[in-house]
Amino acid sequence: MADLITRIEAEIPALRRYATALVRDPAGAEDLVQDCLERALARRHLWRRPGHLRAWLFTLMRRIHSNQARALYRRPTAVALDEERATSVARDDPASRAELEQVLTAIDALPAEQREVLILVAVEGLRYREAATVLGVAAGTIMSRLARARERLRMLRAGDREQRLRRVK
Amino acid sequence: MSEHPERAELSAWMDREIPVDRARRIEAHIGACEHCASIVAAYRANDRAARDLFARLADESPERPAERVLERARASRVRQRRTGAAAATVAALALAATLLSGLLRPTQSPSAPATLAHSAIQAHALYAPDPSRADAATQSPGGLAGWLSDALGRPLGTPGLERMGYRLVDARRVPANPGPAAVLQYRGPDGHRITCYFAKRPGNTDAGMRYLRDKSVGAFYSVDDGLAYAVVGDIGRAALRTIAREAYESIERGYAAGPRGG
Fold first, then answer.
1. I need a surface site. Which of A100, A152, B145, B197 has the fewest CB within 10 A?
2. Strand runs labelled E in A42-106
3. Which of B46, B56, B122 sits opposite A153 (nearest CB)?
4. How many CB pairs under 8 A join A and B?
């Protein structure tokens, strides 16, 4: 059991990333991580199959989030969100900063269901079947949502580049 | 295949989520079709940027000190006592302590090499070997060295553990801060697993090789000229040192041979 706690602890950075994608407000994301950890501990006897621990924790987190979304994790206004996140990105070197801000804007512009699949598969490395379990949809849905997310991101970023070129001219 | 594959197929092909024969045909098409190759390259670049972004966004920051986690755990303790869930309280406190010790480490010194060793040990525990990822990496242009160089954004050799009878069983890019990072896993002749973790640590040099042990798992790690390596395995310290040395030297050889190596 102590071993499982160590493994859950190792998943905290991944939980933070997923919470950031779900809630998009640092304090709310931290609350969600905390609630998810508490629930995971209370139910750790339920996790005994040789499954992917990360996928199980994501499933818990997503359930907590959808149950409490309206009451507890209020989404801040878009302006407050952008300012807060811009500060956290601004600590990095300026060269990568501009690019990261563009990526952030583009990912924020994705529909929530597409953004979530992108995070689960492209960022967290879940297989389609695992992501399907987390989201409670068919694996084929993961494939099509992810494809739409990637394509949309590509178009958004291509648009960014075009604008930059125009400005240079 | 003269017709362009659908975007969903290109995307699933990147994730190794389509049948092998179909994957081969798509691969052949991409090799010959500049248009589809550029789409896949854009998807990959955006995936990489997303990993980098989320690693940074969710990273421990001064605005979220560890004390707040403890504070929250206390608050939840009160809440749970009210509902009479004493067992859950004990569990929550145990986790709060674990959490706190985990959070303090990176907060004290975010780029400390020991953090690297912990990340590597976590990667070793976390990622189950997926040989299809290993195949994808070795079959990419430039082979494994090309894949690793691309993942870390600088010319690198491979750990070269094949010479010691090891077989590559997994290769993946992982989110890290500062990113990027890559993880290679090898399986030894007697079945044990070795994880090699690489991360960029710009401006960081700490050439000595150090050792860290977490229960039965050991890690040799080092930061040299902005590149951090760790070699992790559930084997004896001496055996692990031999493997780690071999891996470092082999990577350095490839690095030195690269265009920016001199």
1. A152
2. none
3. B46
4. 138
Contacts of B50 in chain A (CB under 8 A): 103, 107, 118-119, 122-123, 153
Distance from CA of B69 to the nearest CA of A (A): 8
Cα–Cα separations (whole angstroms), residue B238 to A137, B234, B235, B242: 48, 12, 9, 6
Three-point CA angle B153, B159, B164, nearest 5°: 170
Residue A3, pLDDT score: 74
pTM (predicted TM-score): 0.49
A160 & A109 share domain? yes
Partners of B221 in the β-ladder:
B210, B230
Same domain, B74 and B168: no
- For B95, the closest of A5, A13, A99 (CB atoms) is A5
Residue range(s) defining the domain that contains residue B17: 7-57
3-class state of residue B2 by DSSP: coil
Is the ipTM higher than 0.85? The answer is no
A18: in domain: yes
In Å, what is the CA distance from A80 to each residue of A25, A47, A75, A77, B110? 9, 38, 10, 5, 27
Which helix (H) or strand (E) segment holds residue B201: the answer is none
Question: Is A20 at the interface with chain B, CB within 8 A?
Answer: yes
The verdict on A41 touching B (C-beta cutoff 8 Å) is yes
pLDDT tens profile B90-130:
444 444 444 444 443 333 333 456 678 888 888 888 788 88
Whether A137 contacts chain B with CB within 8 A: no
Same domain for B127 and B235, yes or no, is yes
Mind listing the pLDDT tens digit for each residue in A141-154?
Answer: 999 999 999 999 99
- In 3-state terms chain A splits into helix, strand, coil percentages (rounded to 5) of 80, 0, 20
User: Domain for residue A77, yes or no?
Assistant: no
Asked if residue B224 and residue B103 are part of one domain, the reply reads no
Mean pLDDT, 10 residues at a time, chain B of 262 residues: 85 92 93 94 91 72 38 45 42 46 38 72 83 89 88 85 90 80 91 90 71 84 82 87 85 58 32
Number of domains forming the structure of chain A: 2
Facing B54 at nearest CB: one of A5, A21, A127: A21
Which helix (H) or strand (E) is B258 found in, with range? Answer: none
Which helix H or strand E contains B221, and what residues bound it? strand B217-224
**What's the CA gap between B209 and B230, in Å, rounded?**
9
B117 and B230 in contact (C-beta within 8 Å)? yes
